[in-house]
Amino acid sequence: MEKDFGIAKKADEFLQIFKKGEEFTKDLIMENERLRFRVAQLEEAAEKSGKEERIRIYEERIKMLEEEFNSLLERYRKVEEENKDFASKYVEVESENNNLANLYVASYQLHSTLDFNEVLRIVLEIIINLIGAEKFAIFLMDEKTNELLPAASEGFSLEELPKTKLGEDIIGKVAKEGESYFAENMGYTNDINTSSPAVCIPLKIKEHVIGVISIYSLFVQKKSFTNIDYELFNLLAGHAATAIFSSKLYTQSERKLTTIQSFLDLLKEKPRK
What are phi and psi of 256, to 5 degrees? Predict the structure, then answer.
């Protein structure tokens, strides 16, 4: 009986040990699962952290590339502005060279002949082609009467242009004072008063005025005067005056010489028997 009780007790102890072993195994499995879950969490966190780090690095690289791009774009804009500036200066220099060439040609033409009518024609061409005047006239001073008489014109007949006394109206005042006149409103117009020009340029040899260039209207495409136009006005005021005066004296001297020569030829003729 006691033997049976001892066996039962040992069996019970074995069962208790087995149960504890089972519980320990369950606890071990649960702890293992918990640890695996934690490892998975840590791996996921590490992977997520790695992605964020890569994203941060990519963002920094993108920012750096954008800054480099903006810097290059700014440099490109500066170079483009410099190129535009150079191109503008080149156009200005080329225009200035053309203007100087025109001034040289005009000056050369004015002094290329001593024929009075030819000089007047050259002055007319300069005013038309280089200044862009449509209607204008050249008045020359008559020293005997102190009147300005029309000598050549474009857009008018000489009969349409009035004689002007020294000091009267705009033309006469310009001739008397020796200063150029520019109206406030210049350009193309059909309303023309021959006593009220848009521009008046005195033809002067030093301080002596020998005539006036009177411009009444410009061509339609000519809106205003440029710097080269004022240079041409200065050229005409001096060089045209000299050319006109010289050719006029030469023409008069030629006529006198012809008259004297004719008179001498008459004297040399033998008297008729």
Answer: -60, -40
In a domain, residue 266? The reply is: no
Asked if residue 237 lies in contact with residue 209, where contact means CB atoms within 8 angstroms, the answer is: no
Q: Determine the residue type at 229.
A: D
Q: Tell me whether residue 92 is in a domain.
A: yes
Q: Nearest 5 degrees, angle CA 19-CA 20-CA 25? A: 95
Summarised one tens digit per residue, pLDDT across range 159-213 is: 888 888 888 889 999 999 999 998 876 655 555 677 778 899 999 988 899 999 9
Q: Are 130 and 232 in contact (CB under 8 A)?
A: yes
Token pair for residue 273? 């028997």
Q: Are 99 and 225 in contact (CB under 8 A)?
A: no
CA-CA distance, 166 to 186, in Å (whole number)? 24
Q: Quote the domain boundaries for residue 15.
A: 1-110
pLDDT(3) > 50: no
